[in-house]
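fwd from M.: "can u put these together and see what the complex looks like"

so here's what she sent:
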Amino acid sequence: MSISKRIEKIQAGLRRKKIDAILITEPHNRRYLSGYSAPDHDIGESSGALLIPARRSPLLFTDFRFKIQAESEVDGLEVMLYTKGLLPLLQQLLPELEVSTLAFESHYTLHSVFEKMQTMAEKFSITLAPMDGLVEKMRVIKDGTEIDKIRRSVLLNEEVFQEIYTTITPGQTEIDIALAVEATMRKKGAESPSFDTITATGKRSALPHAVPGLVRIKKNKPLMIDMGLILDGYCSDMTRTFVPKKASKKYLKIHRLVRKAQLAATKAIRAGISAAAIDKIARDIITDGGYGKHFGHALGHGVGLAVHEEPRLSSRNRKFLRAGMVVTVEPGIYLPGWGGIRLENMVVVRKDDCEVLNQDTTWLDI
Amino acid sequence: MSISKRIEKIQAGLRRKKIDAILITEPHNRRYLSGYSAPDHDIGESSGALLIPARRSPLLFTDFRFKIQAESEVDGLEVMLYTKGLLPLLQQLLPELEVSTLAFESHYTLHSVFEKMQTMAEKFSITLAPMDGLVEKMRVIKDGTEIDKIRRSVLLNEEVFQEIYTTITPGQTEIDIALAVEATMRKKGAESPSFDTITATGKRSALPHAVPGLVRIKKNKPLMIDMGLILDGYCSDMTRTFVPKKASKKYLKIHRLVRKAQLAATKAIRAGISAAAIDKIARDIITDGGYGKHFGHALGHGVGLAVHEEPRLSSRNRKFLRAGMVVTVEPGIYLPGWGGIRLENMVVVRKDDCEVLNQDTTWLDI
């Protein structure tokens, strides 16, 4: 769907709800609806906002730092600069645009900012309508162009993984490997990593969110690498676990169980099955293998412009999968004091099955 | 001031305002008041919250991922884990703790989260009191221990800069240098960079927030490096601009003007002078030199647990500096199509003067 089609869809929704305009501040949504790619440094340091009126073309607001970037990236959108912040500009524009009901992104607006917006709104008799997840709901289904971008992100990520994987030696530390991963990503043209690279050796691999440390790789212990990058806006996310030298029998047994769970879940993914049902398929296999309580997280999550987005493949998500969703499938078993094994691929949900986007087979079927 | 003294100060303030407890969610404030150092992945993915009741000891809430870290870092604080998120736990605890007025950090609470808190609060007849900057106001004055930590952060940052500076060659790209900077930081024990390293060559140095690119260093053009790291929680922030080979006369002239502005402003910094007055001293020198409109940002900002905090050294900040504040002094001149020069040091405000924390003199007085 082109950006203008996305905008039309939002506008139709606004008209149905009798809302005059929506202010988009969440950076991925802003990019999805405008092409403007600047991320926010953080929620308190916005790189801009997109105002979509129900009946006229959108306006992108930003400040002088991003003027050139914004103007070169957006197509058919007017770019306006604010010098004293967004609110004073809105205060001037909203009455001109005859906006009397303004929607805003409740899940990406600070309460302190909301209070200021509320003061302004009262002054101009504007009603504020909090909205949550409106654009995210559109983003959850990817079209062919988006899937193509995600595929390229996945393949570049694998290229980086291979380049690092072939040079891993026991003398290196976790930090050495993580830095090499992120440097290689940037050298190969990624915008950035899609999250902080995880490299965890030995028993540290039992921490699902380990931060790389000055710890040397153990040659006969598990090494878990969880990495992803952003290419053309779209994220990848992949985990491989392996043993640099010789894997123990216990390692092989657990690894094969994780892979079995991954394969079974992948085989079952198709439009019309619930997220919880897919999670259960993987979880049952791990439970039957005796490690149920050591698989402490959900099976997967959506990936797109954000590295974590809907749908969650969790036992609590009863919603049905739909064609065009892109999700990770990442079962894991974590034994405190021993280590952890997680294997993660990304798949596209199709009508009758799913397509695995990953080509890399390193240490999957051992 | 020890953490327990900080807590006592907050509690005394709560009692004065007849507030029963405050919920601290902003990660730097959380660390300042507990020692718990996990950052938030982003505002929607919290690593925990600190509840400070007015009349009993604080509670740190987090989830199982951070249990070990939290318990080892906090001293004398109870750590409680939530499994279904923070709100269900609060819903159970607040009535037990007889909290009828609960303050929260308005500037680090999403509107969507506030709405859920509001629903819970109404159910239990709790009044919510938005607060903004309560802890930040305490953080703005650093004690000796904090200044010592900042000093070590500054010196380690300079050590990293020197290691990279001596190896810069024109064949490298901006990205090569930025990656080397960040890798060296982590290898030398920094927690992380305090912001994305800026390395900008040639006319790209005219963009104050340039993102490093696959652009080769130009040997006779300005190279700007703006870098900082986090050590033991505290940030550093330093900019040096230089020419790898031979600087032009124009370069030397502008560089000396920037340095003159920096020195004059630094000389004037002391407790009791307004932030705006300091900004003006530097700005007047650059304006007199003919480049006033090319110094498009404020002169400096506070640095501590956050790399950008109060006070801003800007023309709009009429507040007086106070002893124990730590600020950057970073005038810059940016000429579109030519390049930019910014020089940045950090200083501690003292009663009658200030102390420059930087020892590095690379390309300052040329």
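replying to her w this: The mean pLDDT of chain B is 95.
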